[in-house]
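re: the backbone from monday

yeah here it is again, tokenized this time
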């Protein structure tokens, strides 16, 4: 081989190595784009508290865990759901960063989050703390508007109903506000309140006056899945399209 041919061959090899190195850098970034992180925000019914024999505490068998199991069964570990539920809290506390054990306003907190989807589930503590439906509407509106401005997909949820008729009537008004916010801001809604209220035996699936038993948490997760799965599929398909463009 002549010196000129050898030099050209070496140049070609160097270009191939450089191209392969660039592909190695691009491919993981593309794969990372396919991951879907969901963050679930809410009160103790998001956290997953159940009560038995007078003792209440977080349970591994909760709606968020069941939801992640269902989504990973459908899509693998590319999808994950992180539980950010905090007991005894309200939507306004999440917005203002005054939840128990927290201290970061919603806008700051979400700006630092890698979540592509956030779910928001409040209403029960608003009733228990004497907030008005209008106050609840304002807080949820702020949460949704901020999240969307930061590029997050938002899914709103109404609370599960409460066995006490008087409290449940007030909770129905809160659920109506959540439906209103979803309609006004054009975000998906999981109407847990309406669905569970229509079940003939739902009160038997409550562990106390506010918290479901694991069987009802599973039902809630099923309703979550029905709304979230199409969003997740769309995101994963979009990621695959981006990946294919590098082929």
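seq for it, each position gets an aa:
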């Amino acid at each position: 081989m002549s010196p000129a041919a050898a030099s050209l061959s070496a140049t070609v090899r160097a270009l191939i190595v450089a191209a392969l190195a660039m592909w190695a850098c691009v491919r993981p970034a593309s794969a990372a784009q396919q991951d879907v992180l969901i963050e679930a925000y809410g009160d103790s019914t998001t956290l997953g508290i159940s009560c038995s024999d007078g003792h209440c505490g977080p349970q591994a068998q909760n709606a968020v865990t069941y939801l992640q199991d269902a989504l990973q069964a459908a899509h693998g570990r590319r999808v994950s759901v992180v539980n950010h539920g905090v007991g005894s809290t309200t939507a306004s506390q999440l917005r203002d960063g005054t939840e128990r054990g927290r201290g970061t306003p919603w806008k700051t907190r979400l700006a630092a989050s890698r979540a592509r989807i956030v779910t928001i589930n409040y209403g029960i503590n608003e009733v228990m703390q004497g907030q008005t439906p209008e106050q609840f509407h304002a807080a949820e509106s702020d949460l949704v508007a901020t999240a969307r401005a930061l590029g997050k997909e938002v899914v709103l949820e109404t609370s599960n109903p409460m066995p006490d008729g008087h409290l449940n009537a007030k909770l129905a008004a809160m659920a109506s506000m959540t439906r209103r916010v979803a309609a006004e801001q054009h975000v998906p809604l999981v109407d847990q309140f309406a669905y569970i209220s229509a079940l003939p035996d739902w009160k038997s699936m409550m562990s106390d006056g506010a918290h479901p038993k694991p069987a009802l948490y599973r039902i809630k997760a099923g309703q979550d899945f029905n709304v979230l799965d199409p969003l997740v599929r769309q995101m994963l398909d979009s990621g695959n399209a981006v990946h294919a463009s590098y082929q």
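Confidence is low (pLDDT under 50) at residues 19-32, 242-247. The beta strands are 36-42, 49-52, 55-58, 79-85, 117-121, 153-157, 189-190.
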